[in-house]
Amino acid sequence: MVRRGVQLAPLVPGHQEGGLRGGTPSVVLCEAAALALELAEAERAREAARLGALRDGFERGVAPLHARARVHGWGAPRLCNTSHVCFPGRDAEAVLIALDLEGFAVSVGAACASGTMRPSHVLLAMGVSVADARSSIRVSFGRDTTDADVSALLSCLKRVL
């Protein structure tokens, strides 16, 4: 629908669609596009399940590493590729640096808040104390993350903590 008085130039000259688009849509190409979308959605669902399994495995492996370790949002619907873990009494910045030196890229907050020393406003809004927010790290999992990567991270965390 185009507002009255607005003049549009046709993308492809013709008489269809009020003279704004010529030609007849290819049913075969429309079906191919629909199939491509179905395949992409199936792949997205498979990848989400795989990443969720990696995240859950990581979170199960964290508990034995620190007596009071907690996963923020445990049991709630959350992103499949992100885990936010608190190690009360540990300085998250120190843990981050130690993991970085071992080749692991984790963070202490959202990427959009990097460079700030303030605790995560999201964690604070969830009711997490300032002390616990400063003892929390965020781990993200991606397309290239493997079970071996998660195991190596847990081993490194065990040494660091």
Q: What is the terminal separation in angstroms?
A: 61 Å
* Sequence of secondary-structure elements: HEEHHHEH
Strand order of the largest sheet: 1-2-3
SS-derived structural category: mainly alpha
How many domains is the backbone divided into? 1
Q: What is the CATH top level name?
A: Alpha Beta
- Helix percent band: 40-55%
- Anisotropy-based shape: elongated
Determine the CATH topology.
Aspartate Aminotransferase, domain 1
Instruction: Give the strand tally.
Output: 3
Q: Please state the CA-atom Rg, rounded to the nearest Å.
A: 24 Å
Question: Looking at this structure, what is the CATH superfamily?
Answer: Aspartate Aminotransferase, domain 1
Number of helices: 5
3D structure, described in words:
With 161 residues, the chain is mainly α. 43% of the residues lie in helices and 7% in strands. The protein contains five helices and three strands; from the N terminus they run αββαααβα. Strands 1-2-3 form a three-stranded antiparallel β-sheet. It is elongated. It starts with 26 loop residues before the first helix and ends with a helix. The mean pLDDT is 90.
Task: Summarize the SSE layout with pairings.
Layout (H helix, E strand, L loop, with lengths): L26 H36 L7 E2 L10 E5 L5 H10 L19 H5 L4 H4 L2 E5 L6 H14 L1
Antiparallel strand pairs: 1-2, 2-3
